[in-house]
Amino acid sequence: MKASVGAKLKLHFINGVTTDHLEKSRDKQRKTLLKKIDKHARSQTHAVSIHIKQQALKSELEEAVRKAHTVWEEVNAEKIDATCKVFCSAYLCAKEELAFTKHPAIMKLQELNGHTKAAMLYSHHSCANILKHVAQEMKAELSSYLKQSMHPFSIMIDETTTLSTKSALIVFIRTQVNDIVCNFFYDLIELSDGSTGVQLANAVLNCFSDLGESTLRRLIGFASDGASVMTGRYEGAVAHLKESLEN
Questions:
Q1: How many Å apart are CA 133 and CA 127, to the nearest integer?
Q2: What gap in Å lies between CA 228 and CA 230, rounded to an integer?
Q3: pTM over 0.90
Q4: E-assigned strand segments in the chain
Q5: What is the side-by-side strand order in the sheet with 180-190?
Q6: If you average pLDDT over residues 25-53, what whole number do you get?
Q7: Do residues 135 and 201 make contact, with C-beta atoms less than 8 angstroms apart?
Q8: Is the pLDDT of residue 72 over 80?
């Protein structure tokens, strides 16, 4: 062990010997021991030793967690592979705009072809839950990119009506990724409070509330159809957005 700058290593501490018991009485030994312990507790050497011990414990814990994770992956490799195939099948339903009720049939076909041995996640309810999880993860990744990136971005919104005749707002984001300008679907917002210009603006602001003020300052563009509720000079959604962002 080497001493760092400003630290001294005492051999009697390293070797576990704090007093010379052959030359001093028991009372003097105790007093000397207490003084040395008190002095050592306030020394840089003691602080360095504690730091080394903490780093060693941290490294041991990280290594134990890594080994445990590796062992778990090895033991459950077959289950993980089967679950990944189920997720891919569910994602296919969303990407190809298939009904979630097609998911069980797709999984049954994979099973007949010997490509999966999963014993669950076959129902259309499972398909919906899987896609909800995937959507949340994709949105979180996009939000994280917008926060960390210094690129400006624009939004594109449009009002629509669902099959259940509920009014909703579609939100897209346009930004630069790897020197390429890309469009991303960001959210589908149910307009339960109404669809006036101020309500649309509030819905958009609530949608981006997790991005933070510093990120919203890089919002440089707004696109929509020519409806007055969107582009009205005084009461349109864009007017209320500009007012809110300026404030």
A1: 10
A2: 5
A3: no
A4: 153-161, 167-177, 180-190, 219-223
A5: 180-190, 167-177, 153-161, 219-223
A6: 74
A7: no
A8: no
* Residue 91 lies inside a defined structural domain of this protein: yes
Give 9's pLDDT tier (boundaries 50, 70, 90). low
| Residue 187 domain-assigned (yes or no) | yes
Tell me the pLDDT band of 21, cut-offs 50, 70 and 90. low
Cα→Cα distances 125→120, 176, 230, 231, Å: 11, 36, 36, 40
CA angle, corner 139, sides to 83 and 237, nearest 5? 150
74, 96, 115 — which closes off a domain? 74
* 58/115 same-domain check: no
CA atoms within 13 A on the CB side of 219: 23
The whole-angstrom distance between residue 228's C-alpha and the CA centroid of its chain comes to: 38
Structural domain harbouring 177: 150-246
Q: Residue 5 has what pLDDT?
A: 52
Strand runs (DSSP E) across 27-177, as ranges? 153-161, 167-177
Q: What does the CA dihedral 84, 90, 91, 97 come to, rounded to 10 degrees?
A: 170
To the nearest 10 degrees (0 to 180), the angle between helices 77-95 and 44-75 is 70
User: How many other C-beta atoms lie within 10 A of the C-beta of residue 176?
Assistant: 13
Residue 185 lies in a domain: yes
The pLDDT assigned to 139 comes to 92
- 67 and 84 together in one domain: no
Token readout for 124 is: 């259309």
